[in-house]
Amino acid sequence: MTSKKLLALFTPATIVVAIDQWTKYVVRTSPELHRMDIIDGWLSFYYTQNDGMAMGIDIFSTPVISAISIIATIGILAYLLYTIDKAPIGYLILMGLVVGGALGNITDRLIMGYIEGYGGLLDGHVVDFIFFNLELFDRTVFPYIFNVADVAISVSIISLLIFQRKLIPHDVNEEEKTEETSLMESAVVSGDSTEDNSSEKE
Length: 202
What we know:
The chain is an alpha+beta fold.
């Protein structure tokens, strides 16, 4: 396990967490940013908090979802450290984005309940504020509100799918490949984009 590979994994993770938490804090504490057009008809800030899972899925209670997110992230990180010796640098950088995105949203789940005064540990809701409000045929093209952590996870997973032959280690056996795919799917649980509900807009 080389220091170079550890840096490749944890540097992007740290950067993502820092940017994610800073942007959430700025938007959350700035009322003028709660409803703001950035690019008219394309991109806006629409501040909300999500107590469910990615894409607005609301099946379990918030503490259960928080626990699942934490367990999934620990599993991903453990697997990465276990296979780090044979993992390419590019792969570790992208997986660092996944870990950072997951940790960014988990941080919200751990602290937002206390900050907002509505709950305790694991009761926190994830702060979302980025909204692509482009409409075609009177329907929003992407009706979800998300955050920087979600962007990091999405960019990483899409890049890994596109460049998997170059980035994903080739000397793993089929069982490990299956496990890796499952861990990638688990990462989506840690993303927390919120489905937009136009009827609830002001």
